[in-house]
Structure formats: C-alpha cells, structure tokens
Amino acid sequence: MLYHSLAWAYDFVAWVVSFGHWHDWRLAALDYIQPGTILEIGFGTGELLLEMKSRGYDITGLELSPQMHTVTRRKLKQRGLTVKRVRGRVEAVPIKEQAFANVISTFPARYILNENTFSEIRRLLKVSGRFVIVGLGVRFKSGIIRWLTRWALGGPYNEFINHFIAEAQKKRFKATLHEYEDEISLLPVLVLERDDGDGFA
Known about the structure:
25% strand
C-alpha cells in the first residue's frame, strides 16, 4: 500500500521510522560504487535518483509502481532534471545485458529474495560489475528504538544476511559485507561483485 496508493506519504514515513536518517542511509550506497553506468532498482520516490543525477552520474531508474513514477516525475520537473526511468519488475528487466557497471538497491522489498533477481542482476552487470545493497536490516543502538521500529525495519538481521550471501554466492557473486555507522544505528552495506572466474560468464 505504501508503494502504491500511499506513495505520496512514503518520504514522510521513511523519515519518521529512521529518525531523520533516511537520506544519509541511502547515500551510503554511493561510497561503494565504481566508475560507470548505474541502475537503481526500486527507486521509490526518486530521492537517490535525483541526488545521483545532480552529482553527474550516468543513472537509470527501475520501478514497478506507477504511483512512485508519478511522485518522481513531479520532483524531477520541479528541479529541472531528466533521468532515464523504466517501469518494470527486477525479475525481468527490459534492458540489454551487461548494460551497467553498478546496480544499486536501498531498503529493497521482497523482490530481493526472488531467485530470478540474482540471475537478472547478473545479466545486467558488466564483467566485474557491482551490486550494492543497503538496508537489508537496521540495528539501532538504542534498545527502546529497536523495539519501537521493529514493525517497520525488522529485527536482528545477521541470520538473514548470512542466508542472502549464501544464495548470492550460488549465483556466482563475490560478497563483501560492510557496515555504515552513525550516532544512532548500524546499517549493513552488502557489495556483490559479478564473479567470472573459471571461465564462467
């Protein structure tokens, strides 16, 4: 519902549940990208898309929700920017293979668990391309805040991340786990690199 009929409220809800840190959390992804083209999957209300465009990145956005596209289009018009955007599912992206040096996903929805997502991301990435995922979970330093926000951001995430890494490795990705830290939270940043060793392509 928040991704569709309530898309207009998404930014406010995200700001509230992150105690004002949502913008900085998403920007953490940019510390791990490499030079070249970028695809942001599930771009939501377009805030990171606009930030990357303003920094001069060659960026394309993929989003299924028409309501999110509407919100993003309005923001782009207000700021006088244009960004390549595609409406579609991550499991079947209508873009040619090896088109991107980087794929970014921040706080992904359930599509990230789909086996086809790994295959499709691998298809879209250039050799040695990177898939940067921010926010497979959030660990607040305060126990009270963890309790208050677990309905929105989930609980302990180590087990889930370990499982996710294992699945990614089956799809021939090299995985490196980093952690972004600010004054209130610890945030996992997972970097998956397309592994083309042993003649695999």
